[in-house]
Amino acid sequence: MNWLNNICYLSDSYKVSHYKQLPPNTKKMYSYFESRTGAAYDSTVFFGLQYWLKEYLCGQVVTQEKIDRAEKRFNLHFGKNIFNKKGWQHILEKHDGYLPIEIKAVPEGTAVDGSNVLMTAENTDEESAWLTNYLETMLVQVWYPSTVTTQSRAMKSVLLKYLNETGDPSLIDFKLHDFGFRGVTCPEQAAIGGAAHLVNFLGTDTFPGIILAEEFYDEEMAGFSIPASEHSTITSWGRDNEVQACENILTQYPDGLVACVSDSFDIFKCCSDIWGGVLKDKVLKRDGTLVVRPDSGHPPFIVVQVLNILGEKFGYTINKKGYKVLNPKVRVIQGDGIDFNMLGMILDAMKTSRWSADNVAFGSGGGLLQKLNRDTQKFAFKCSSILVLDENRDVYKQPITDKGKKSKSGRFKLVKEGNKFLTVGQDDPRQDELQTVFLNGKLLIDQKFSDIRKRAKI
Predict the structure, then answer these.
(1) Helix residue ranges, H only, 260-419
(2) Strand 101-105 with 435-439, pairing
């Protein structure tokens, strides 16, 4: 989006006026980013900062043309001369357009206990204290990939629980597939959210996420998919020709995994009379696995019923843990209505009916990439210290109307205490887990997707 990629634009409008509002002679502003008390998940997996840094903050991001364009537009926007042209000119002339900011952050993929510092930012030029929180708007947007990664990892924990209880946990990597591309707001969000999910899993149909992982995290191929039908490729044959539509899927893809949506008309009849009837021999003789996809109805009931029918038609074995596993020629993927809560409901219904979690994979769209917001993990970016002349001043807020919004004060380290993280003062002698990743317009640590996956592994 070259038309929008002007660092002067990429902040909330009211922040344009903030350079005049700081205490006189403010030289430094130090701010931090955290997941506050009350988040949906106890720990947060930090991910996505490197994308924002590389795409928007690295290099010569301030130019004369950008300053002039921003001055004109903001003066029209406010109806008066509000824009901090002098401040931006200083960055251009003294720093050649490189941002005089230091950003420290926990390594991406790290799961950090709630109410701890995840990232800090501080200006390195004493004439640019206003810049720290001008960048808040962009830096806070790491909330989205961090929340997707956190939620995806929480869903992975649920899946692992049931795989450990009823089946084979080594199957985990392909148990949750990203169906979210069409449900997001734009291709960039698909890329960011899609890559965030791939920190935890290998299955996706959100291809932009793969490209982001390649371009920004040096991962050649982060995710995989299989041939699969949609309703149009079945219903276009006509209701009376559903058998032919299904048979065509088997003919066109004679080996490997292939998925077919099977609820275009009657999911139960399709499983019993088509897959388990007319086409049964072809399914069994095929060199691969047919994955049946129900796509409507109440998922816990539908999934168990589909498993029951396929088990009756194709047979099953009882594994060492005492649960039923379908003939390896058939499996099920449930891709409708899957979010964190529904996932557990389906797996619990399967367990109650003695079906192993091995039998089913899940596809999640809106429940993975859209049913969340900045308050899911209670993210906030707050100033906690300023330097006025030679005096360091601790800064905090403490609203009497919401104790949960009390902010931290001072300058921080993030330290490990056993398996837990703890935010402490900067004078604490323990090793700081926060690393300087960005300094004066340059990326100092280029993190690899493979390393991020290792950190996030449960």
Answers:
(1) 267-269, 280-285, 299-314, 340-352, 366-369
(2) antiparallel
Task: Give me the helix-helix angle, 207-217 and 449-456, nearest 10°.
Answer: 110
pLDDT digits (tens, 9 = 90+) for 395-431: 999 999 998 889 999 999 999 999 999 999 999 999 9
User: Predicted confidence band at 3 (pLDDT cuts at 50, 70, 90)?
Assistant: confident
Q: What was the pLDDT predicted at 1?
A: 64
| Full-model pTM | 0.97
Instruction: Name the 3-class secondary structure at 446.
Output: coil
398/435 Cα distance (integer angstroms): 28
Contact at 8 Å (CB) between 376 and 149? no
CA-based nearest residue to 219, from 199, 203, 204: 199
Model confidence pLDDT, tens digit, residues 99-149: 999 999 999 999 999 999 999 999 999 999 999 999 999 999 999 999 999
Class of domain 13-142+376-456: alpha beta
**Backbone phi, psi, residue 223, to 5°:** -150, 165
Q: Could you tell me the residue ranges of all domains in the chain?
A: 13-142+376-456, 147-369
**CATH tag, 147-369:** 3.20.20.70
List all residues 6 or more positions away from 417 whose beta carbon is below 8 Å from its beta carbon. Answer: none
CA distances from 64 to 126, 134, 407 (A): 22, 19, 37
